[in-house]
Design goal:
Strand content: 15-25%
CATH superfamily of the largest domain: Aldehyde Dehydrogenase, Chain A, domain 1
Oligomer: single chain
Distance between the termini: 46 Å
CATH class of the largest domain: Alpha Beta
Mean pLDDT: 93
Number of helices: 15
Number of domains: 2
Number of strands: 17
Strand order of the largest sheet: 10-9-11-8-7-12-13
Shape: globular
Radius of gyration: 24 Å
CATH topology of the largest domain: Aldehyde Dehydrogenase, Chain A, domain 1
Amino acid sequence: MTIREKAAAMKLDSTLMASKSAGTRNQALANIARALLADQEEIFKANAQDLAEAEKNDIPEAVVKRLKFNTQKLTDVVKGIENLIDLPDKVYETQFVRELDEGLTLVRESCPIGVIGVIFEARPDALVQIACLCIKSGNCAILKGGSETKHTNKVLFSLIYQAAMESGLPENCLFQAELRDEISELLACHESVDLLIPRGSNAFVQYIMDNTKIPVMGHADGICHIYVDKDFDIDKAIPVIIDAKTQYTAACNAVETLLVHSDAVDALMPRLNEAFRAHNIELRATADITDRYDSKPAADEDFATEYLDLIISAKTVNHIDEAILHINKYGSHHTDCIITEDKEAAEYFMRMVDSAGVYQNCSTRFADGFRYGFGAEVGISTGKIHARGPVGLEGLLTYKYKLYGNGQIVADYASGKKEFHFKEIYQ
């Protein structure tokens, strides 16, 4: 069966999927968690094969870190599934009820999007999270992961799909695309696929947007910033910066650029430089920092680079507005943080920085659906339409309007025979 044929079948089954009760969907998630734990040795064996092939093919270390699926990652994804189960059901939730006129009532109700195609990087845990979020939200999903994890993804998908079938979900609720040329086929399925979510570089996301008629919710680069303002607490600043760079260096929410107020440089840099050396972080900075502290000169392209490595660029700024201008120019609208004890400065920064996540005094690594209490995420949207930031359960839902009448016709309102009174019943 081709991707187009499969997508058409999924479109037909999408209404069946949406109609499944919260209990059925949650039971499917519970069965998936049990299946993953029961067959973990099979998963680890497949992952070892992927890692061996990555080493043979000289895959970059930043990518290899994402390939690994060990006991800790299994524990994390199972915990994420359990959290998803515990989340209240949002499918067919009433958002408001408005009486337009006596006997004419408008209801807005949430509903699944339908068929979602997700193209994601070589991260086995992403496949589990995305599949489970789509099940929880009542959507059908076409999943295309990176080829570097083909063995692990094949085993994971098989376990997930079998558990879904045993739980009573529709036959076409999930599909795994395994071949690279299937991406172009997927992009042509605009009559069946309701939404595409590509995760990867800006160039990749732009390619998807330019080659499909399907609506696209992009998850692109993460060029994240931390700005240290003049009124800062160094005991907060050092751990936050180090965590944001090192806790998971290959993640899109790791910090890549440090901006330092000129009045804070002498108080921050000596201790921060020691911390950088202790964690083997390479600092690339502007001349006013390199002249005094251990670092390499930064080129202009450093400030537009997502390193995904133990490298950080840095520059001084003379005012908070200079920091904001730099972030809005060079950033990817992902997640940016200010380190400051000045509440007014923090609020100004968070209002003026045009990013999906704006933080004060905490690591950019908190930008994550699981850490936001979403259970998991299908990605982090750096756009502004429909969903923004970590896209969890609510981001995979849309809504419909239901109008309940009793023989009313528009002609009566156009002629003035009747009038709308717009009474809010529930909001």
